[in-house]
Amino acid sequence: MTTSSDTTALQPTYEQVASLPAFAQMSVPTAFEDLNGHLNIRHYLGIASEGLDESLVEVGILQQWPTIAGSAVFTAEHHLTYLSELRTGDKISVRVRLLGRSARAAHVLVYLLDDEKQRVSYVMEEVFLHIDMESRRTAEWPADVAAALDERVARDADLPWEPALSGSMSLR
After folding, report:
1. Are strands 119-132 and 105-114 parallel, antiparallel or unpaired?
2. CA–CA gap between residue 110 and residue 112 (Å, rounded)
3. Which CATH code is given to the segment(s) 4-157?
4. Got the DSSP string for 104-132?
5. 70 by DSSP, 3-state: which?
6. Dihedral, CA of residue 62, residue 32, residue 30 and residue 19, to nearest 10
């Protein structure tokens, strides 16, 4: 059985992940607190998703992509790992490591960092799909986006640390 401390030990360090560009930087707002006095579970996913969306602009996937290009990305799978709690007022940021892509999908790790305590708080592993909005079915990535994704995958593969993967998903 893997314990919480084992899961934490497998993850990259704060310093390693913090070397990636920061997205969705904020302080945890009071409105996101739950009855336990920490960030409500639904907001971990929401903040990580916002950071991922911001990071995808670099590869040509704009927030307005569905209306300007008739394309979108839909999530196919998530694996969520909670490593440490976040509390109201904590300064946080999202960091994204693109792992790979296939003709119609991409595999990514999204980290939520506690920038005050300098620790990795949450990891979201995700596979997302390119969708043609007219047919609402998967479609091959446009050539420019595919090339930009490939560049990002190669750049992230050159990082001097190994990502910890859930083993529960992969590109097909």
Report:
1. antiparallel
2. 7
3. 3.10.129.10
4. SEEEEEEEEEETTTTEEEEEEEEEEEEEE
5. coil
6. -50
Please name the residues in contact with 1: beta carbons below 8 A apart, sequence gap of 6 or more: none
93, β-bridge pairs: 113
pLDDT tens figures, 77-104: 999 999 999 999 999 999 999 999 999 9
**Res 3: pLDDT:** 45
Q: Could you tell me if 125 and 83 are in contact, meaning their C-beta atoms sit under 8 angstroms apart?
A: no
Instruction: Flag whether pLDDT at 22 surpasses 70.
Output: yes
Pairing mode, strands 119-132 and 23-27:
unpaired
Domain boundaries defined on the chain:
4-157
Tokens of 129: 């799909």
- Label residue 39 by pLDDT band (50, 70, 90): very high
Residues 6+ apart with CB under 8 A from 117: 84, 90
Opening angle at CA 127, ends 121 and 129, nearest 5:
140
**Structure confidence at residue 10 as a pLDDT band (50, 70, 90):** confident
Q: Which helix (H) or strand (E) holds 154?
A: helix 143-157
Work out the angle at residue 87's Cα, subtended by the Cα atoms of residues 84 and 90, and round it to the nearest 5 degrees: 95
Q: Are 93 and 21 in contact (CB under 8 A)?
A: no
